[in-house]
Amino acid sequence: MENAGGNAYGKATRLYTKHCKYSEQWNPWHPFRSALDIQLAQLFSQQTITWIDQHLSRGLDNFTIQSLQLADDLRNILSELDFGLSDDSWIVDASHIFGTLYYRDIFKHIQFLLAHLSFEAHLKFEPVHLANSEGHRIYSEMIMGDWWWNIEDQFPAGATIVTVMCASDKTHLTNFSDDQHAWLLHLTIGNNRKDICQIPKRCTWIFVRLIPCPTNGAKNIDEAWHSTLGTALSHLRHLVITGPGLNWDCPGGFQRQCYAHLAAWSGYYPYQVMVAQVSYGSCPMCESPKCAPMGHSTF
Questions:
Q1: Structural domain of residue 99, as residue ranges?
Q2: Where is the domain boundary, 44, 59, 79?
Q3: What is the pTM for the complete model shown?
């Protein structure tokens, strides 16, 4: 492989310096002030607003909690849990025909995942070849696939490819307003180990798009879905792979020349059909005959 990727270019200056343990702003309990405050907040989350206010006003916690004095303070603190990806990070677009689109700047979220200190031991920035004792290739992570090796040649030497993985689904909102549903989109990066991405508490998947589903029988549903998706993923569409890339921090304390690239899409078969824009019953991966048994013997 001539084009080795994942090189570091200087020290980190952005997200890493803000949240690293040697920074003046470092607080391992952010946005709370202590471990005790977090434990009390977990207790409060199961109570009513009135109960929380009475508990704090009477000093039943012996006035030990420092992070909040009212139930509203707890709500404000919880909105800051994601290190800057708070409620005000949402962009509202009312120009779509089927409803208001809510989405986030995906590059900010990719930077967040790439520089998150808790992922330092689990992030990989270049592809690898692994084999067992019999010499057979092992495929257990995205970095082990031939796809990553092949795509490295399309980018400048030393570039770090940030593989973007999306997952889409439809969720039920309410039965009181004509069975309202909404399309959701979540995002993560394939540089992280798969077992880490599978742990909900690690918060590796980030919610980045929401739009109401069209009513049953509506026309141009696929067109509307792709239109909102194009808006939410516009940064990926306009990134020039032959350009200088984006200087993003990694949790190791370095900057890397990064190129975000859409690598995988997770979803049920109807959403795979919608993404690929093929007829129902067709394979979204190849040109096999419609309704033929699906199966791919090559990788």
A1: 8-25+84-276
A2: 79
A3: 0.76
Same domain, 122 and 222: yes
Task: Please say whether the beta carbons of 260 and 110 come within 8 A.
Answer: yes
Task: Give residue for tokens 């921090």.
Answer: 249
Which of these, 262, 280, 260, lies nearest to 271 by C-alpha position?
A: 280
Scan for tokens 């980018």, then name that residue. 155
> Do 106 and 38 share a structural domain?
no
Q: What is the pLDDT along the chain (299 residues), one digit of tens a residue?
A: 445 567 888 888 776 666 665 556 666 677 777 788 888 888 888 888 888 888 877 776 565 677 777 788 887 877 766 555 666 778 898 887 777 888 999 998 898 899 888 888 899 998 888 899 998 999 989 889 888 888 888 888 888 999 999 998 877 776 666 557 788 899 999 999 999 988 887 888 998 988 877 766 667 777 888 888 888 888 888 888 878 889 998 888 888 999 999 998 888 888 788 888 888 888 877 776 666 665 554 43
Quick one: angle between helices 221-232 and 269-276, nearest 10?
80
The total domain count for the chain is 2
Residues 199 and 235 in one domain: yes
Considering the domain architecture, whether residues 69 and 217 belong to the same structural domain is answered as no
Q: Is residue 132 part of a domain?
A: yes
- The owner of tokens 């394939």 is 190
Inter-residue contact 136 to 299 (CB < 8 Å): no
